[in-house]
User: What shape does this take?
Amino acid sequence: RSCEVTSDRNRLTPCVFLSEHQHITKMDKELSLQKDLFSRIKELDGTRHAHLYVAFVVCGVCVGQVLQCYTDMLITCRINRENPTCFQLIDCKDDNCTTHVLAIINDKTTEDRSMLMNEATNILVRCGLIPKKHGELFSVSRGWCEDSLCVVDRNAAPFFGVTSVGVHLNCFVRTEHGNVEVWMARRASTKSKYPSKWDPTVAGGLPVGMGLFENVIKEAEEEAGIPNTMVTIGAKSAGVLSQMTCCSDGSCLKQSLYFIWDMEVDKDFIPHPADGEVDKFERWSVETLESEVRQGERLRPAMRLVATDFLIRHGVITPDREPQLVKIQSAMHQDRYIFPHKGAINSGASEN
Assistant: This one.
């Protein structure tokens, strides 16, 4: 999963304006339209690796999924020496088929379950599966906006298939000729995941106890130096995308939810790197953005969805130009894959 990084952080310019002709010629544009965008979106669908996973059950609720090869490691986990192991691999029958389920047992309260998830995170660190704890906590629940059954460190959450909730802000400009250009952010070369790949103007995960738009406002100021009042007044909710995503090696299968906001800005607006999460910003034409989603490799892979959605909503990708638009829209609004777990419904402790 390494990525070649050639930028020199000491010599980065905060922003660069790019014209259409710097990135895409007429021939490139015609070629981009021949690319199979639907296949590019489907490449991100991680359910092709589902056979490698078992359901992860908490309080009888399937909250995610875990790679089968991790289960032996996790069933040794306990809060302390006095307590028995708290993860159990259960055989259950679903439609006359026997399947395995990893369930938390001997858990009495939300705090107990969170302590167990913390110890499981320590094991992942010791085994080198994650480099360190992030410190930010994510909710573990049946689905977005449902009661939290426990919390888990952000870096460990993908290993348990916990639904990932992200917020994304597209800052865009209408030029004097009526063309749309969008500000893109290049991730810092020091990021542990997808260094130097490109994101929308602002992108961030949702920590426990924070509202979605509240998080947009916070991330916009922290990552791009955008004043709170500007986002509060100008950002407009543009919907949500959903897909079952995973890493390139098939690990960390999870539902990813992308909540999106658009904000039209003046042509003299310039975001600037504020907290080290972003190396620089560039203003891309929609032609450049379309070329990237169809055939480029500069975007963070999952951001193909966010960028494609922006291009559809702003009339760049249309039904006349994209014959597979219905399939593309469906692939970007995928239901969460629920693993078989009926036999484990009564195996966990009651929720508290």
Summary: Confidence is low (pLDDT under 50) at residues 1-28, 30-34, 345-352.
